[in-house]
Design brief:
mainly alpha; 2 domains; two-stranded antiparallel sheet
């Protein structure tokens, strides 16, 4: 992190390391079939691209840098080279890194609200009064801030997505039920 609280260097280093590992996989593994390459990507490459992503929430240019590595990783698989990135993800049953980050944000929010982090998450979110129809019954309220940088903070960026979830999801008693 630099003096301006910018995490671009962290993203660049993560992308560089993931690209290096991807190059090693590409040069050392002869088979390009899905059953061989996909577990290697998920085990060796993706953790570098998703490391602490809920904490440092990459900006648009940084997301694109990380996503570019994931594009390259999916292109290595034989038979998918000619497909678009979205079609490759669909064929592989994967999500983009941005969707995975959002999914992780919602899971972390669920855990905070259900008391998994009682000490740390006690007052991290403000609950909104929600008597509206169409409400999920457990809406959150984002604070107002003058600085745009705060819009990327976990507590702010997750609120609008949480408030769009159906009532069954937010009232789930267990994480396993929420995820399903």
């Amino acid at each position: 992190m630099d003096d301006n609280l910018d995490m671009s260097l962290q993203c660049a280093l993560a992308a560089q390391k993931a690209n290096y590992i991807l190059g090693c996989v590409k040069s050392s593994v002869a088979s390009r079939v899905r059953e061989v390459i996909l577990p290697l990507h998920s085990t060796l490459v993706r953790p570098h691209l998703e490391s602490c992503i809920q904490l440092w929430s990459p900006q648009h240019k940084d997301i694109e840098l990380l996503e570019q590595v994931w594009r390259r990783a999916t292109k290595i698989i034989r038979g998918l080279e000619h497909l678009s990135y979205e079609d490759r993800l669909r064929q592989l049953g994967l999500f983009s890194l941005e969707k995975r980050r959002l999914w992780g944000d919602l899971i972390a929010t669920f855990q905070y609200l259900k008391g998994a982090y009682k000490k740390d998450g006690k007052n991290i979110f403000n609950r909104a009064c929600c008597n509206r129809s169409g409400s999920n019954g457990f809406e959150l309220r984002a604070g107002r801030y003058r600085l745009d940088i705060r819009q990327i903070w976990f507590m702010i960026r997750v609120v609008k997505h949480w408030n769009r979830l159906p009532r069954e999801a937010v009232e789930a008693p267990f994480l396993e039920t929420f995820v399903a």
